[in-house]
Amino acid sequence: MNLPDHTRTRRRLAFLFSVPLAFSLIFFLVDVASEHTDTQLLDLQSLASGVHQLRSLATDAEAGERGYLLMQEDRYLLPLQQASRQLPIQVRSCLSFADQEPALRPQIERLAALVTQRFNQANAALETERTSGLRAALELVRSGRSEATMNDIRKSVRRLLQDLDAQRDDYLANERKLRNITFGFFVAGFLATLLVTIWLYNALLAHLYAREAAQVELQKLNAELEARIGERTRELRESNEELQQFAYVASHDLQEPLRTITSFSQLLEARYKGQLDEDADEFIGYIVSSAKRMTDLINGLLALVRLRKTGQMAAPVPFEALLDDAEVGLQGSIRESGARIEHGPLPALVVDRVQFVQVFQNLFSNAIKYKRDEPPLIRVDARRDSGNWVISVSDNGCGFSQEFAERIFGLFQRLQMQSVEGTGMGLSIARKIVERHGGRIWAESTPGVGSTFSFSLPANLEAPLQHEGYRSDLTPVSQQTGR
């Protein structure tokens, strides 16, 4: 039985439109797999950077130990002291990235143990020098245990970097395979779409000959639209590749030589400050401060890039816990400045925990850096305003003119006190994090009195908490904490 012409036409039209949809779904799945591979590559690069940093910390420990024993001056202990503060952070960071690669975790743990052992050996030599004298300390160093530990560290780092390179090569091969598959499906989809279009055109031509001119015009419009879509797709692909290339360059090619410049310039400053003329000391200071600022800028830009990846937000997070995490990350600045952080009742909302810890760290850090002569007092409060939660962070700092309240959230914007360390990206990052959660952020300030930074979040981010000691709206376990 022959089907009517309009029925056949509808079926051909349905088939024509199903082909692009099917290939679009395939492209989406392949793109998700490719993005997952990119994430794994970035994790491997970060892990490799952490391994280099652990080796560098062990070298700093050895340099501080040997320098002090040879010169008997406390300033040569600076590399060891700085490395001791960085060691726990780097070990946690490496182990965190190693969670994504369980096969490499034993090697990471062994390397961390060796580096920790080298620090213990350096501290033991210094303690021996203080209790038993220089000769006993030198005998302990000459025993060779420290050198054996450093050799084990070098071997462990070399072996681990080889494994990381091999893993990276596997990921790159997989990514190339995905790109080839994507290209193959693109060609197949294009040819299938072209064939179906020709088939449909020939079927309709016999019935719509009188409308041939309109059909030709429609095809021209379709061709122009496809060209625009293709051009837009190409631009988006190039933009994404440039962004990925930037992240790779910033995290690998730029940071490693910059760390070398920073390390050796600091060592140069520690060894020769005061031994050359005043101009030399000033120039060395410029090198150290500029290298540190460039490192901060690169890390800030990387933070902006990482914001495009959405974290897991399955459960509500008590904001009191976010404050605790933020304070842990700023313990050095808080103790040095004598800052005190207080808070009232705070909500528990479904947010990205890591990103909102970063928001509070940026706001607290600004309050500490731009303080007056008195110790900083920071107060965090929350209130329910219609369909939003409004979180306010107030301080007693130097403040700023209200006319600049919008400008300070721009990238690289700093209004005053250029001598204070910073990149001008903290508030810009905070704004992006709040906006991606559906909120907004603003500031109110009075010069010489202080500032209040507030941000709102939709109330629908609330969810009932089953944990003992919390309610769904507030966390009443602690009404105020001074730290």
Structure described in brief:
This protein has 483 residues and is of the alpha+beta class. It has helices spanning 5-71, 78-98, 105-132, 134-142, 145-205, 212-272, 278-306, 319-329, 331-337, 353-369, 426-436; strands spanning 317-318, 340-343, 348-349, 377-385, 388-394, 440-446, 450-458.
Order of helices and strands: HHHHHHHEHHEEHEEHEE
Proportion in β-strands: 5-15%
Strand elements, count: 7
Mean pLDDT: 76
Please give the domain count. 2
The helical percent reads 55-70%
Q: How many helices in DSSP terms? A: 11
Q: Roughly how many Å apart are the termini?
A: 85 Å
For the biggest sheet, the summary is:
5 strands, mixed
Spatial shape: extended
If you compute it from the alpha carbons, what radius of gyration comes out, rounded to the nearest whole angstrom? 30 Å
- Determine the structural class based on helices, strands and strand pairing: alpha+beta
Low-pLDDT stretches are: 465-483
Strand order of the largest sheet: 2-4-5-7-6
Word description of this protein:
The protein has 483 residues and is an alpha+beta fold. It contains eleven helices and seven strands. The strands form two sheets. Strands 2-4-5-7-6 form a five-stranded mixed β-sheet, with helices on one face. A two-stranded antiparallel ribbon has the order 1-3. Helix 8 (319-329) crosses helix 10. The N and C termini lie far apart (85 Å).
